[in-house]
Structures are given as structure tokens and as C-alpha cells.
Amino acid sequence: MAIPLVLVHTGTQFPSYLNDCIALANKQGFDIHLLLSGELHPYVDKSKVKLIIAEDFEDEGFADYQLSNYPQDFKDGFFTRTSSRFLLLHRYAQQTNLKSFFHVENDVALFDDLQTTQKVLEATDKEMFLVMDHPYRCVPSILWFRSSCILAKLAEFLRLSLSHTDMENLAFFFNSYRELVGNLPIIDRCIENDFKIDFNNKLADLQLIFDGAALGQYLFGIDNENPAETVGFINETTVFSPATLNFTWRNQLPYAASAGTNKIANLHMHCKNLKQLLQ
After folding, report:
1. Is 260 a residue whose pLDDT tops 80?
2. How far apart are alpha carbons 103 and 105 in whole angstroms?
3. Strands (E), 62-190
């Protein structure tokens, strides 16, 4: 059975790379759900994607949600939208009784069907898994949810913390609910830290590493006028430097090695050029 993969876009402008994200996910056989304003549906390549009218799952709490101390005119309300999507995601998962599903950001390239990952995560006592790349930061490039129950807790947490970004709040959520929230492996070796975070957690079971932001930024650059000029960019926050890894591509799939060689499950394509991975 195909694994549910939920994408969310709450903006008023359609990001063209979203279709490339969907195309890459389709190659892995996911059951793709896309929550998007009905006005933007005509821009979507509708092959193998369930188009959901986002407005059908908006409520008063979603409409009133707004981060403080961040400009609302930046990138179509970017800072508020990156957090409010989880309110929308909660309502959708709750009303459709969605179980054991993944959520990725719209500029993420997937290279694995995550069938083994889903089984491993379901066998734990956790309700959610995310990508911690620093004790105080989670880049939500890819997340797994057991059900809408943990999303209800996350949505309430976000409503009470309006002065922090999604990356900060998800890290706070992880650190506050470690009995419920686990982290996916981002590196194939142990990284000593004072926060007791195992950055290669579950690696032996998953045989995959997951990218918060650092790998995609290093390999393909960051979002600016000429991303190619920033290839080799070292993320300023992540707990390891991707320059310490050896990268290889096999059958158009990426692998990384330091202590061992593991397939990369996803790349966060900060440069927004996902199309190059479809060639």
C-alpha cells in the first residue's frame, strides 16, 4: 500500500518547483495529498496527486494565526505560513483520520519510498519523528506523524509560542516531548553534545540519512539570484559540516559516507531547482 505523503502550501502565489517535488515523490510511489488554495489548483500537474482545497480545512484559529516580530510582507507571509501550515495539517489529518503519514516541504526531493522507514517508526513508542540538526533547531524538511493526535499537541504548542519560527518551535517541541517525539538520523557517526541528542538515531534500522537543510545546500547551493555560485555552502547552524562527507550518485540516487555509506532519503533543495533532479 502506498504511503500517504501530505504537502501543504498556504500562500497566494504558486511555487513552480512544487510540481517538481510532486514528480520526484511520484517516482517513489507515494499517495500524495496536496493542500492548496482552490484558486491555485489549475497550476498543479494533476497526475497522481490528490488535490485538496485548503480553505475547506481553515478555521478561525488558522485565520488569526500570525507570528510577531516577523515581517508579514516577506515572501507572501513566509514566516507565519511555515508555522500555520501545521494547523491546517492537523485539521486535515483529523477530519480524514489519516494515519502514519509523512509531510515534506515543497522544495524537498525524495529518493526513497520510505516503506522500511514507516515500519521502523511505527514499531517505536513515538508519535512523531523529525529532523534535528542542532539542539535548538529543527528544519521540518521531512516529518512523520502517527496520527492527528500529536499534531493537536503541536498545533496548540505553536499557538502559544508566536515569537519564534517553525524551526525554533519544532526544536522546543522535541525537547519538551521527547517521550513522544523522536529524531531521524542526519549523519552516520556519533556527535558528542550536552543535550543527549543522538544525531544518528535509528541509523542501523533505517540505513538512511535525512537532510534538514545542510546536504541540499552544500550540493546544490542556496536560494539567491545564482544558486550555482553558492554550491559548497556550509550551513551555519547544523552540528556537522557536509564537507566532511563523501558524496556519490548511483542510478540517480544520492549516497553519503564518513564512517559508512548510506543512502540519502531526501535533499532539501534550498536553491529551488528540483527540476535538475528529474533529468
Report:
1. no
2. 7
3. 101-104, 108-110, 128-130, 132-134, 137-138, 142-145, 181-183
